[in-house]
Amino acid sequence: MAVSEANSTVDATPNFTHYVSIDFGTSGCGIAMAIKGNTSDIKVFSSWEGMTNVDTKCPTVLLLDPDKKFEQFGIKAMKAMEAKSNLKQKDKADDYLFFRKFKMCLYDNPEAKEIKAMNGTSVPLIDVFVHSLKCIREYALEGLRKNFSNPGRKIQWIITVPAIWTPAAKQFMRKAAVQAGFDERSLVFALEPEAAALFCLQDVIQIKNVPEASYLVVDCGGGTIDIAAHKMIIKNKGIKDKEEIFIEELSPPDGGDYGGFAVNQQFEHMLQDIFSVSNEQFDCIKEKCSRQWFEMVWKTFEESKCNIQPGKEHESISIPIHKSIREEVRRITEKSIEDLVNAYKKNSVEWDSDEDGIVLPYSTIYNLYNPILVQITSLINTVLSKPSCSSITMVLLVGGFAESSLLYDEVRDGILCVHNSADKPIEVKRSTLPIFSVVKGAVIFGQYKEIIRSRVMKKSVGVEACVEFCEDEHDKKYLKESGGEKYCEKAFFPLVKANDSVYTGMPAKYLFRPLTDEQQVCTISLYESLNRDVKYTDEGGCTLMGKIDIDIPKCTSDLSREIQLIIDFVKTEYDVSACSVSNDETKKLVVKHTFHNQQKHLPS
After folding, report:
1. Domain of residue 99, CATH code
2. What distances in angstroms separate CA 594 from CA 441, 448, 525, 597, one per listed residue?
3. Of 78, 98, 113, 595, which residue is 20 to 30 A from 519 by alpha carbon distance?
4. Which DSSP state fits 536?
């Protein structure tokens, strides 16, 4: 059942003629596009320069020249670094700035303003995003010209973001996209697991004769695992031109940094163990041999690990170790890597004298995967164990990391071992070409945003307010007296509470009055907490989420006018607005808001 067929009564946005999605991933980027009203023939961009495999994404890597100007992006950036690494250009190559995994900065260190290239040089983080998005946008426009005779200018751009990203991370991404040339008015964000779910409605889920179905989508990316629990509701099922599909969220989005790159990091931890060096010494090796290290870990090992198949315990992979790495290890340890490997008694690692590298048997690769797979399976089982998710009967694995058969088999068995039963069987499926599920689904989301009817809040969100002091309710340390009245400062006025469902068309509202007749700007502080019952904004676990500035027109009458703050929490980006209510008239006000990241997101 196609979404476009089912939701025939919900028309796609009329102002756009073409829909273009960008899956801006940690490890790779994808582009897909379609004309308005068409979700069955979505074109995936495959004309990445320098790449021959059409069933893959462009590596998310960026190369800047020594003056910090754009040089190359994607596979061309990798090949350019390889070309500059020959003996004649070695010194010059060291001055070039190579970036990878930079999307993870918005998860690992939300307050980061700068990022270091492989050679240790720092540049503004937003510059790296802007350069990358600008290049991807040009590729997308090229794809439009090739696939459609008259693409026009009415393009809806959809950029995918992790469901576990904070509002501040999304705001950063929007700022970077606008600076990269995207029209802010035609740009929307789609949550990655939601986008994948929309694609899977057509690609995987076979709906039986039931009015609803519940499922879990697990987006296994390079950097993070993103989980969304949904209930799909079908209205007027079987009635032509009236059948509609809606999706409700069953649980707040969850996830963590357990993506495919985590296996590479396990490999690096093993190498440090083999070399028997300190963290400082290991970082020195990686920095001095940055290009060769990238080639070894993030290219050779990355490609080799994906070829390991369950049940083929006799197989192994060989990872060559570049001469410069071997020499640096000898300089630090005064031992050859061959001697260090031969002395290493763990994981059955052997030295390959023919390739000047190490041989990793199946058991060693499995041991590198295992801690990550255990974390992923544990997280999925935790979500499935929630009472709100008791109706789930299907788990969908999507994303590039889901293409790993080792991951699929282990996660499937780990889920079925805990949750599968005769009275409530759970089916674990993997989308066909899971690497493109997100980017294709984002095209569908762009055309049918109304399909997401409700979300579940992960945190309580409220306004810092000054309310009437109540002796029986408030702590005296928050007491403030003014004009003979007693007030409670730093009171948390909840707009929504953690684990509450919020619905389309039912935004949260906060009504207040200006303090003075002359007040022209009102600043409201938003706070958030994982706790449901928050009383004060300075209590443990309550952090500043952002600030909202509302322009207030000069008042010539009295202070009876009221200002209403309105926040729609259902949309991918919180929609913040305000209006002035006076003498039965409502006037929209100018609102500026800035979200803050106080701490790294912690999965529940």
Report:
1. 3.30.420.40
2. 29, 28, 10, 10
3. 595
4. B
Q: Which residues pair with 461 in a beta bridge?
A: 496, 528
**Rounded Cα gap, residues 496 and 507, in angstroms:** 10
In tens, the pLDDT along 86-133 reads 544 555 667 889 998 899 998 877 678 899 998 889 999 999 999 999
Q: What is the pLDDT of residues 318-329, one digit of tens each?
A: 999 999 999 999
The span from the CA of 178 to the CA of 421, in Å, is 50
Decide if 165 is inside a domain: yes
- Which residues sit opposite 251 in a β-bridge? 229
Count the neighbouring beta carbons within 10 Å of the beta carbon of residue 66. 14
Which amino acid is it at 596?
H
Residue 194 CA to residue 229 CA, distance in Å, equals: 9
Q: Could you give the residue ranges of the DSSP H alpha helices within 546-587? A: none
Distance of CA 445 to the CA centre of its chain: 16
Nearest-CA neighbor of 138 among 35, 38, 20?
A: 20
Name the DSSP letter for residue 12. P
Q: How far apart are alpha carbons 542 and 461 in whole angstroms? A: 9
Question: Same domain, yes or no, for 274 and 198?
Answer: no
Dihedrals φ, ψ of 351, to 5°? -90, 135
Residue 358 one-letter amino acid: I
SS3 readout for 301-363: HHHHHCCCCCCCCCCEEEEECCHHHHHHHHHHHCCCHHHHHHHCCCCCCEEECCCCEEEEEHH
Is 604 inside any structural domain? no
Place of tokens 């790779």: 28
Q: Are residues 229 and 166 in the same domain?
A: no
Amino acid at position 463, single letter = V
Determine the Cα angle at 55 with ends 51 and 57, to 5°: 60
Domain count, the chain: 3
Q: Alpha carbon 208 to chain centroid distance?
A: 32
**Would you state the structure tokens that stand for residue 503, as one six-digit string?**
């619905």
Q: Which domain holds residue 193?
A: 3-204+431-454
Asked if 231 and 197 sit in the same domain, the reply is no
Do 401 and 430 form a contact (C-beta atoms < 8 A)? Answer: no
Single out the residue of 483, 15, 487, 395 nearest to residue 205, CA to CA: 395
- Contact, 596 vs 602, CB < 8 A? no
CA separation for the pair 548, 529 (Å, rounded): 18
Length of the chain: 604
Residue ranges of the chain whose pLDDT lies below 50: 1, 4-5, 8-12, 87-88, 203-204, 207-208, 599-604
Closest to 408 (Cα-Cα) out of 390, 389, 395? 395
